[in-house]
Amino acid sequence: MKKTLALALVATTALGTTAFAQEEISEFRIGILGGENAQDRMNSYQCLADYTTEALGVETKLFAPADYNGVIQGLLGGTIDMAWLGASAYAATFLQDPEVVEPVLIKVNLDGSVGYHSIGFARADSDIASLEDMEGKVFGFGDPNSTSGYLIPSIEIPKAGDGITMEPGDYFQDVVFTGGHEQTIVAVANGDIDGGVTWADGQGNWEDGYNSGALRKAVDAGLVDMNNLVEIWKSNVIPEGPVVLRSALPEEVKTTMTELVDGLYDQDPDCAYGVAAGDTLGFQPVTHEMYESIIAARQSVIGN
Fold this sequence. Notes:
Low-confidence stretches: 1-23
Family: Belongs to the phosphate/phosphite/phosphonate binding protein family.
Signal peptide: 1-21
Helix content: 25-40%
Shape: globular
Keywords: Signal
Strand content: 15-25%
Protein name: Phosphate-import protein PhnD
Largest sheet: 6 strands, mixed
Pfam families: Phosphonate-bd (PF12974)
Mean pLDDT: 91
Structural class: alpha/beta
CATH topology of the largest domain: D-Maltodextrin-Binding Protein, domain 2
Order of helices and strands: HHEHEHEHEEEHEHEHEEEHHHEH
């Protein structure tokens, strides 16, 4: 969004004409999916909250629930107005109420693509270099509502080799949920589990945690040295999750917020870096059709 739009809205209020935001909403609430600790998530989004307050003329509140379902339920219950969801979290929201949110934007990688990967990884000193080496080992997944942290691996990993199943005690010694992407990365790095999955764009350098994603955020936070980790599996391309807005919001609010996030990269690259979890070209429009295959996959594996 061009900064002049936000200033124009505020200036209108200052002149005595109540802005649409103050007439129709009293606050704006942004939900942030898990992936790193709550305070880091809040810090990464604070700049967006400040721009939102300026643009809408109302207080903006950030919410960073402990798990993905907290954001999903917030959207369904009307206590969260906007969120950047993973594709599976969007599918979960849609399957429970197809009318509650509208997908409006999708993150764009540096090469112009709009996909990412689930990345399997282990410690470099563990002698684990593939899924075959994970037999009899403990494999960690992030969150049941995560696309890259559960849904896609649960479908693709069993197809990657003979005899691989996701049943604990079968091929893997155990299959555990860590609670989120950051937790998985730290657990593998510390040797608490043998391998795990997380998300990354798969572009750029491994030692940087690639260009964007949970690994990049972990590197930025000083939580991990990628030279101590090794990639052991990589999914097919997954569509980036959508930025969604609650359908019941006033149309002017939805338009303003779509334009704000769409133009965030041009207006404030540092803010866009934090919101998009690394180096990107920002966001571009997206529609529901992008996620129909993920919705079908989730329905077949999880049900809703």
